[in-house]
Amino acid sequence: SSAREIFRKFRTPGEGEKLILEGNAFVERVLPIGMRRKLTDEEMSVYHAPFPTPQSRRPTWRFPNELPIAGEPADVYATMERAHAALAASTYPKLLFAAEPGALVSPAYAEELAGKLRDCRFVKLGDGIHYLQEDHPETIGRSVAAFIAEVEGRRTKSAA
Q1: What is the reported pLDDT for 105?
Q2: Domain contains 97
Q3: What's the rounded Cα separation, in Å, for the pair 125 and 6?
Q4: What is the pTM of this model?
Q5: Would 41 be classed as within a structural domain?
Q6: Which residues span the domain enclosing 50?
Q7: What's the number of domains the chain is made of?
Q8: Which sign, positive or negative, has the C-alpha torsion 117, 120, 125, 131?
Q9: Cα-to-chain-centroid distance, residue 13
Q10: Which helix (H) or strand (E) holds 110?
Q11: Measured between alpha carbons, how far is 24 from 12 in angstroms, rounded to an integer?
């Protein structure tokens, strides 16, 4: 896939630094292909603001190098495995959004995961890729507000 190829380049010594540190590839390339709509210049300026210099982009260069792919880096993979196990064992309320076709996780997998987790609400957003908040801000906002109200309502009831 094109995302795999981009991340392979990001992890290639010399090439990744050039793409991300010099070219600001996460904001200039990854962000636009991760959503259905085109951001306005004003919206893009908000994404540009934290990363004005190559030095300020260093964390966005480290990210693809730390992202566990095919079990590497092993320490990060092990941490993610522990986090997934903790999530599966947890009893606190959860809210999971998915869109079609999605990016890293298919909507079918997300729905299956939500069904396996305790107390997990699943919201299908419709058309979307990765940056779902940009394609569905109102639906996400309303869903989060309703979720918080429901959780707070349960807390109030159980305290009474």
Answers
A1: 87
A2: yes
A3: 26
A4: 0.85
A5: yes
A6: 2-66
A7: 2
A8: negative
A9: 25
A10: helix 107-116
A11: 16
Residues 61 and 103 in one domain: no
The confidence score (pLDDT) of residue 1 equals 54
- Tens-binned pLDDT, residue by residue, of the chain (160 aa): 577 788 889 999 999 999 999 999 999 999 999 999 999 999 999 999 999 999 999 999 999 999 998 898 999 999 999 999 999 999 999 999 999 999 888 999 999 999 999 999 999 999 999 999 999 999 999 999 999 999 999 888 887 7
What is the residue type of 132?
L
Taking CA atoms, 148 is separated from 100, 132, 143, 151, in Å, by: 25, 19, 9, 5
Q: Which of 26, 50, 66 marks a domain boundary?
A: 66
Locate 116 and state its tokens.
């396996």
pLDDT at 45: 98
Show the tokens assigned to 103.
């990016």
Residue 114 in any domain: the answer is: yes
3-state secondary structure of 77: helix
* 141 Cα distance to chain centroid: 16
Which one-letter DSSP state was computed for residue 18?
I
Rounded-to-integer distance, Cα 26 and Cα 64, Å: 10
User: The tokens of 75 are what?
Assistant: 């320490």
